[in-house]
Amino acid sequence: MFFASDNGAPVHPAVFAAMERANSGYALSYGNDPATEALRDRIRTVFEAPEAEVLLLTTGTAANALALSVLTPPWATTFCHRHAHIAEDECGAPEFFSGGAKLTLIDGPHGKIAPDALEQTIAQTGGSVHVAQRGALSLTNVTEAGTVYTTAELSALTAIAKAHGLPVHLDGARFANALAATGATPAEMSWRAGVDVLTLGGTKNGLLAAEAVVLFNPAQAWEAALRRKRAGHLNSKLRFVAAQFDAWFEADRWLDMARHANSMAARLARGLSALPGAEVVHPSHANIIFAQLPATAHTRAKASGAVYYQSDETLCRLVASWSTTGAEVDALLAAFAA
Amino acid sequence: MFFASDNGAPVHPAVFAAMERANSGYALSYGNDPATEALRDRIRTVFEAPEAEVLLLTTGTAANALALSVLTPPWATTFCHRHAHIAEDECGAPEFFSGGAKLTLIDGPHGKIAPDALEQTIAQTGGSVHVAQRGALSLTNVTEAGTVYTTAELSALTAIAKAHGLPVHLDGARFANALAATGATPAEMSWRAGVDVLTLGGTKNGLLAAEAVVLFNPAQAWEAALRRKRAGHLNSKLRFVAAQFDAWFEADRWLDMARHANSMAARLARGLSALPGAEVVHPSHANIIFAQLPATAHTRAKASGAVYYQSDETLCRLVASWSTTGAEVDALLAAFAA
Amino acid sequence: MFFASDNGAPVHPAVFAAMERANSGYALSYGNDPATEALRDRIRTVFEAPEAEVLLLTTGTAANALALSVLTPPWATTFCHRHAHIAEDECGAPEFFSGGAKLTLIDGPHGKIAPDALEQTIAQTGGSVHVAQRGALSLTNVTEAGTVYTTAELSALTAIAKAHGLPVHLDGARFANALAATGATPAEMSWRAGVDVLTLGGTKNGLLAAEAVVLFNPAQAWEAALRRKRAGHLNSKLRFVAAQFDAWFEADRWLDMARHANSMAARLARGLSALPGAEVVHPSHANIIFAQLPATAHTRAKASGAVYYQSDETLCRLVASWSTTGAEVDALLAAFAA
Amino acid sequence: MFFASDNGAPVHPAVFAAMERANSGYALSYGNDPATEALRDRIRTVFEAPEAEVLLLTTGTAANALALSVLTPPWATTFCHRHAHIAEDECGAPEFFSGGAKLTLIDGPHGKIAPDALEQTIAQTGGSVHVAQRGALSLTNVTEAGTVYTTAELSALTAIAKAHGLPVHLDGARFANALAATGATPAEMSWRAGVDVLTLGGTKNGLLAAEAVVLFNPAQAWEAALRRKRAGHLNSKLRFVAAQFDAWFEADRWLDMARHANSMAARLARGLSALPGAEVVHPSHANIIFAQLPATAHTRAKASGAVYYQSDETLCRLVASWSTTGAEVDALLAAFAA
């Protein structure tokens, strides 16, 4: 009964198989191998973006911070939700990579930025040499609250940024879960919705350590490549990161895993709704549930061996992954209920 | 016939086996799992350093830059060899991680810093608010020239640093090869020789992507942990990095692989010495050979499918790895000779 | 009728006289002259702090950012009011000097941080490697809203910081005005109230370009000196900055000028209170007034040649200086009223 | 007998007079005043560069580091002489302002970069993602050795940089002395010789604290303005910096002062050449002399009250300024000789 995070799940066996296939003989390092090049082409195809450039990394924090550093100079501020991962969970990585750029935190219900708040905040920013200048807009889908922006919602926000001439980053640590929740295509959820740079996260969805920064504007690729090297994120044996993504995209495994995780979270949400005293806090269509439960229910669940994070006596976060089983969900619900 | 770099070699099969064993069920992420903790204890034992702290990362550049950033403030300069990896091959990662600290480049034959040059350079550094202050000494073993410092040579250099109150970093991207070449123990080649922070490199010696920063002074561990996170180098599924090292240390596999690589390089050096017109440039006891060969020899070797780096028409670098075979060495020599 | 800012006022004539007296013959540069040393001793005496170290600079932004950089590592966050100068008016200087440390913005009425809000915010900060760590508390007196913390109010806030082990910075760009408003001594308004590092501002109170960073903890002086040089803020002819402060302290001129500015603002506030449709927004005991006035009143005042900043159609900021005259105040009031 | 540095000289009285004239009434701060604008126009005229942008600062270190930061990204290296001020005397300010860019140090006799060495060094730099990229060329005139580049020599070096697409910075801390030494016009010594950004130094030539960054490519002006503010170098009462330069340019006072300083140094050099055992080390046409003298000569001079820097027992640097008198020079020579 492990619901602490999707990055605590095991790696999908097909991923190891793909890496072992990649382990035959020698290959030039640092991405100068055919597998890394082939993966770039595959991602271009998946995203219907023949010009896109792709940089492979191994952590989402690095991918986000790298993406923002090519979009914002040190004297600008990135607009993001108050509870964005870049604001709350990366120990200042965006500030470090950008050379001290700021984050402007915008409130909004259920982890989403409200268009009015975005417009108003941008309008109040910049205008003189004394203040931080307008930088990028950074959105997250699936959000940290477990909610999902529709492509229409994304487009409404990116249109505001574009009207002010600002570039847009999408933190897609759970991009596959957002696709699975909405039925949108990768292109629809990214560049067609106004996204300039995407963090495409694999590690939370069955891979070992594989993230990609997808630059829909290839003009920034060389700068991004230098920044990646300089940050120590150019892994030498890159063919093994490429291999992970190969297994991911193979026969839409990435979407199958995400759909499964989402469905396990839905099963959990349905069960919680039926529990007296339990309340699901945010509307959720993906794989993260925030729920209020009586303290006694938590005590019972923990005693039964359930692993998950509590913010306080009653509020908790429950995350399903590609490997969560219906039996685990039911056992957790039973422990809460008993 | 791949002699371009030891990081172009495949991963040892035992490493995949260990990672797959680690892939059973769930584990807390970010190093809060028993495997990561057990590895730390194993490294403490291997190095006879019960207080040491260990941070796992996936690239050597990150490990070096992180190590230096805890040893030098932004206004200091790190003393290193002119051809050190941190100076020539990391695109300014040390400057980035440290917030702009300098490197002071010291010449010396065969990739080694001469004690006199070190003493003189340190003596000329610092002393007023207008200049860069004295920072750390950074040594590399195996050096970039493929030579190996003995523990006595290391101690002579670190003693000079210590006499000036300076901390010492050792870039051990090929630490195992240095141990194999000298017969020294891990402790003798590190803290007993005056090293404060070690980059322990696994990726160039059979692992997939595994490096460790070993802090013999544990007081700096929390700062290092924050810097690692902030740089995006706290991988979430850290149990798989730990598993790689487990396979490495198992039955001294790390030393066996290093000894094998060194012996293949020795076979190559012997063969080159017997070739008319060929010359081995640096004394080498490890797995890297720099050699001068007639341009025609290079043409033949490349035509035969040999892969390695040439600096100019005649000078080349040849690197052996754990997976290099005697047949490959002999085929290369034959191609050079024919 | 110039009420745009106290830094638009002329320099007090005595300041030029002092600088010209200092202009006799040669002097060692970079502060190695007797005048700079004598000023340091004078500031120690004025603040009853015989151990304090003093660094002279020429801008308040530099003084603030330098002060914070010695108090917070790059991975920490400084707690400050949402409208603090360091947050809103320095184009990210604190982030630049600190290497990317964050600011955590705390709300509070009338430009002041409420103790409860401070306690709660600190309590919610830090605790894991994923988040920004607790850094310094930065207070401002006179606040950006023109209000003044009493020494008791300051002490209540610094006590909270100290209870969490955090150092305290005071932005005293208008420190003299705060002293004049409260009657506190320099020591009472600084180290006795828990302040570790003070930005002592002279430029807004009659000097040409003179600020001092006063470090009550001298252990940080050398680091601060290196950071000052590295930021290009070690002026060579420092005797002329020292001379400005000499004229300032002479016969309590600094307090006289501040008292005068405060009294002119009080006269303005009294006049505004008597005007129909006018409202003074914040309680003010210093030299800054925020006021709501009918748009027509602003039109009339501007037409009469008044210079000041408007935030919107009705809200304005009016700043008095050492050189503001009663006649100017009355003329402005008349223009508003007419 | 003060020959320690030209920045230890007094301020020219006309400079104070100009500042006091500027001290009438109120003025908008931060350069939004007519005097600052008028000075910009004057510098455009002086340099025959109607598009140039001008940023005023108060230290040469800040001006140099700011200039370089707009010319080089963090992953590039600036090419400069091994003994350049930016390399040896600024405590890493260029690294700080640029976010960690490197300096590549080039040797060359008498403080000058040899064209061949520049070409060769640039050619060896860059080319892969692993290394620092080619950044700016930074030259210094008058050099740190007291020698002067002719405009032809400057052009030869900048042509090499331009051929590689690199921008050029000129550290003109003693720009007026270089003009006086060569008879070149300001335009000939800057943009016509291929300089993109000039540090125009006033402080070493009679001003109190006044430097200008002159951007001949105005496209970079806004970035430079933001960087200046962010570094705390946007002084509020900028009219007084402008006033200093007004006094400087008035009736070519800057050139008169520089010519005088140069002529005093020439008198000193002539005298030294006639002294038994004395040797002038570098050819000098400006205001700095490096000389070898017997240790006993130094002992006598110091005993006579002479102030200057010695590098070792015999080598010294002697700097003349606008206020050096012939009597002082002769007294120093007499002390050396006696």
CATH topology of the largest domain in chain A: Aspartate Aminotransferase, domain 2
CATH arch. level architecture of the largest domain in chain A? 3-Layer(aba) Sandwich
> Helix segment count of chain A?
13
What is the terminal-to-terminal distance of chain A? 16 Å
Number of strands of chain A: 11
Shape of chain A: globular
Give the SSE layout.
The structure is a homotetramer of 338-residue chains.
Chain A: H1 13-22, H2 34-46, E1 53-57, H3 60-71, E2 76-81, H4 85-88, H5 93-98, E3 102-106, H6 115-123, E4 133-140, H7 151-163, E5 168-172, H8 175-182, E6 197-201, E7 211-215, H9 221-230, H10 239-249, H11 253-273, E8 279-280, E9 288-292, H12 295-303, E10 309-310, E11 315-319, H13 326-337
Parallel strand pairs in A: 2-3, 2-4, 4-5, 5-6
Antiparallel strand pairs in A: 1-7, 6-7, 8-9, 9-11, 10-11
Helix pairs in contact in A: 1-10, 2-10, 3-9, 6-7, 8-11, 11-13, 12-13
EC number (chains A, B, C, D): 4.1.2.48
Protein name (chains A, B, C, D): L-threonine aldolase
Cofactor (chains A, B, C, D): pyridoxal 5'-phosphate
Features:
Aspartate Aminotransferase, domain 1; alpha/beta; lyase (chains A, B, C, D); 16% strand; 7-stranded mixed β-sheet; 4-stranded antiparallel β-sheet; globular; 338 residues; 2 domains; Aspartate Aminotransferase, domain 2; homotetramer
Structure report:
The structure is a homotetramer of 338-residue chains. Chain A has 338 residues and is of the alpha/beta class. Chain A has two domains: 13-252, Type I PLP-dependent aspartate aminotransferase-like (Major domain) (Aspartate Aminotransferase, domain 2), CATH 3.40.640; 253-337, Aspartate Aminotransferase, domain 1. Helix content of chain A is 41%, strand content 16%. Chain A has helices spanning 13-22, 34-46, 60-71, 85-88, 93-98, 115-123, 151-163, 175-182, 221-230, 239-249, 253-273, 295-303, 326-337; strands spanning 53-57, 76-81, 102-106, 133-140, 168-172, 197-201, 211-215, 279-280, 288-292, 309-310, 315-319. In chain A, strands 1-7-6-5-4-2-3 form a seven-stranded mixed sheet, sandwiched between helices. In chain A, α1 packs across α10 (239-249), α3 packs across α9 and α6 packs parallel to α7 (151-163). The mean pLDDT of chain A is 97. Chains in contact: A-B, A-C, A-D, B-C, B-D, C-D. The interface between C and D is large, with 52 and 52 residues. Chains A, B, C, D: Catalyzes the cleavage of L-allo-threonine and L-threonine to glycine and acetaldehyde.
